[in-house]
Amino acid sequence: MKHKKLLLCALLLFGFGLTGIKAQTHLYVKEKSGTQTPFTASSIRTLTFAAGKLAVNKTDGNTGTYSLSAIRYLSFNDYTTDVPQISSRQGSKLAIYPNPVARQLQISYETAKAGNVEVEIIDLQGKILHQQAISSNAGANHATIAITKLPKGIYLCRVNKGTSIETTKFLKQ
To answer: Among candidates 101, 108, 107, which has minimal Cα distance to 154?
Structure first.
């Protein structure tokens, strides 16, 4: 079951990475020991999850092998040097910060008219962990969500404005 969750996380990370506004150039494998290994995306032939291991098969024939139980996370962001302060997509009116976050997630968004918006924090299995209706004004708005009770990991923040839904990902430290 744990291996299936890690596989799902990896697939979702690839999906998010491939749909981002800038091309994702590296995949980072962060181990629980603290070691981080970068792989150039163009050099990866396949990722294989089998027998409790992750194998990164490269186009040059080399393979990086990792025990799934030793992996902390897979990411397209280098969190050791490239920590984005605000996560926002071009054309999107939704921004979250800081990312990664430890205690409080700051959410900035815009609405066309005053009313309630629904903010949800969702895990990568699709389970809604936090749901909150927030009264909003027309124009720019800001909300703070306490996330101290969430375990470390990758989550989605979804803001439902009634006429549109925007979603972005964040990392809980």
So the answer is: 101
pLDDT over 90 for what percent of the chain? 36
- In contact, 26 and 76? CB cutoff 8 Å: yes
Q: For 2-40, what is each residue's pLDDT tens digit?
A: 555 555 555 545 554 444 434 457 788 888 887 878 888
CATH annotation of 2-75: 2.30.30.100
- pLDDT, tens digit (0-9, with 9 covering 90-100), for 130-168: 999 999 999 899 999 999 999 999 999 999 988 888 999
- Residues 151 and 114 sit within 8 Å (Cβ to Cβ): no
The residues, ordered by sequence, that sit 6+ positions from 59 with a Cβ below 8 Å of its Cβ are 42, 43, 44, 45
Identify the pLDDT of residue 19. Answer: 44
CA–CA separation, 136 and 110 (whole Å): 9
How far is Cα of residue 95 from the mean position of the Cα atoms in its chain? 13
Residue ranges covered by each domain of the chain = 2-75, 95-172
CATH code reported for the domain at 95-172? 2.60.40.1930
CB 77 within 8 A of CB 25: no
